[in-house]
Amino acid sequence: MCLTLAETDTRQLVSWMRGHEGAISSLSIHSSGSYAISTSSDTAQLWNLDTFQRKRKLNVRQSVGIQKVFFLPHSNTILSCFSDDSIFAWESDTLFCKYQLPVPQDGPRIHYRTFAVTQDGKTLAAAGRSNLVHLWCLDSRQLLRVIHMPPEVKSVRFVDFLPDSFDGGSNQILGVLSQDGIMRFINIQSCKQIFEIGSHEDAIMLAAICPKGHHIVAVMDSGALRIYDVRSLTPEISKPPQPLLKRVTKGKSSEGSGLKMKVHTGAGQRPVKTSGRRIQSKVLPSAVSTLADKENDLPNGLNKKRLQALLRAFGEYPAKYRMFIWRSLLHLPENHAAFSSLTDKGLHSAYMCLQERYPIKSHKLQRGLQRVLSALAHWAAVFGETDYLPLLAFPFVKLFENNPLICFEVVATIIVNWCQHWFEYFPNPPLNVLSLAENVLAHHDKELLQHFVACGVTSQLYAWPLLETLFSEVLMREEWLKLFDNVFSNHPSFLLMAVVAYVTCCRAPLLLCTERKDFEYFFHHRNSLDISAMLKEAYRLMDSTPADIHPSSALSDFEPLTQGQYPIFNKYPTFIVEYQSQERERIRQQEVEYLRERQEVQELHAEAVRQQAEFEAWYKQQELLLQGEEQRRRILQEEESKLTQQRARLAAMKRELKVKELNLIDSSRRRFLKHQQDQRRIQLKRLDDEIQRKVLVCCYLPMDQLLTPPARTFVD
């Protein structure tokens, strides 16, 4: 068997990769798009999609077949599942075996044949020829839970997790397609059945869930293809949970503590949400809140003071609920109509060729970044002229890849609050904001600032690169998320304090740098830094900086985006932006005119080339005709010369024949004359002989006989 790859746009064959002897049962693509794993019953092969060459091959004993081999999401780990229920994890680069999940010894064998992993790659669901579904925790490598399906389920054909907008990738709802053609969706925490699709009369054969979890596609037993809207099937999907209240309680959870849980049919609520409501009634005060408490109240029942206390205790928010907390902290209005009006204007002219300046391998991320940047440019003209805006927005585009509205509003909220006074000196860096950070550094670390001054390094070199990229160039993903957990939970001045804290925490290597290029490299690349120590230093700076130089005195408090319509953003020199916009439009018009003229010139050139080609073809044809005519003339001349030579040879032959004929005639005449002479000579000789004879006779006869005439005799 072979693996065939085709281009989706042109539908042309890209590569044909051979290697499998049996039928390919599954195909898994790495999140980077550079590698793929193809699986058959006897082997699994790792392919490099950049070179279309096989990188590694996994062979197994003939007695142990392969069920499935696939990549874990957002990871370099390969999970291989075999027919003996053994599951191994491998490092994709070295194919080193990282760990093996223990095979359950209790109870009958399940004979795994279908598998599913949550989007965060932490939970594995496995099922097969029984009514049991095993849930594995891949972090602890232990069996997390065993789910008993209803008695009418004898075996499981297919399992897959249903994504949710608020679960942070740790999907809580599992879809289980059994042998009876019914796909049941179960909450893996409460083991309650949320809803089901399909029936005994109209059974489902195959099913697939879209990456956003909005739709389910099912192939029915009758051959029909049905698409289900998940939100119309159940109201329990994409509802914001209340997890933090559950964390601060001392009571026991309502969930069972046992490993095995049975599925309860009927639409059940999420245990987190139920317990959250119960705890909320105990924790929240019944009296009227004070003004400070009202200011700290957040949407969805959260409280900013409690979140800050939780953040001080753990250093970061739970990854499972981070996006939900951010949306509450930022008071995102979710203005769908206003955002649609911005996106309906299409791509902004400033970001038409964004991929040339910022090439991104993922086309989806490229389009998402273009869409968000264009919406920002349509919202305020200055964002169409801001060169560093793609660097500022890209981390959030990648984080909210599947929700452009939230991504836009998060970036807009950051610009309005944490980027205050950034555009007053546009298109130059915000010197007023950088001076605030420099004043804080001068107060807390004069030696480091004097070293910067001695080396000719200004705040535009050590502070501005961190601000314009929002630390995305110097921090890892988890460090960056932890930082912005704290940024969003504090006053907008905390971002400047984080810049100063980063510089002071890295003072040892910075004091060793003397060249300007070394400083540039340092603030544009990742360095070894303890993010917890940096945040601790930032909080120390927030508390110990004098009020007269504290950035909070120059920056306003947090102001969320307005509901319905987005606020007007005009805190920039409009004449410069308008001039740049006019210049950009003029340059664009000139470019369009140039492109039009170039197109006309290209068309004229193409026409001239075509005519030149036609003339050359005509001249070549005429030349070939002349050459043919000349060749024919030469052939005729050669034929005429040959004919003349033949005629000359024929005349010579005729002359030779004539001469031969004349010679022959002459020789014949001579022979005839000689013959006649010989005849005459013979006759004369004969006459002479006769005469002699007669003379002799006359001599011997008598005279009378000589005189008597001879007697004549007549004979009748």
UniProtKB/TrEMBL annotation:
GO terms classed as biological process: cilium assembly
Region (Disordered): 246-275
Pfam entry (one): WD40
Domain of life, per lineage: Eukaryota
Keyword Hydrolase assigned: no
A Gene Ontology cellular-component term: centriolar satellite
Rab-GAP TBC domain segment(s): 316-491
Coiled-coil region: 584-663
GO molecular function, one term: molecular adaptor activity
Keywords: Cell projection, Cilium biogenesis/degradation, Coiled coil, Cytoplasm, Cytoskeleton, Repeat, WD repeat
Localisation: Cytoplasm, Cytoskeleton, Cilium basal body; Cytoplasm, Cytoskeleton, Microtubule organizing center, Centrosome, Centriolar satellite
Keyword Cytoplasm assigned: yes
Main location: cytoplasm
SMART domains: WD40
Main function: Molecular adapter which is involved in cilium biogenesis. Part of a functional complex including OFD1 a centriolar protein involved in cilium assembly. Could regulate the cAMP-dependent phosphorylation of OFD1, and its subsequent ubiquitination by PJA2 which ultimately leads to its proteasomal degradation.
Protein known as: TBC1 domain family member 31
Source organism of the structure: Cyprinus carpio carpio
Upper classification of the organism: Eukaryota, Metazoa, Chordata, Craniata, Vertebrata
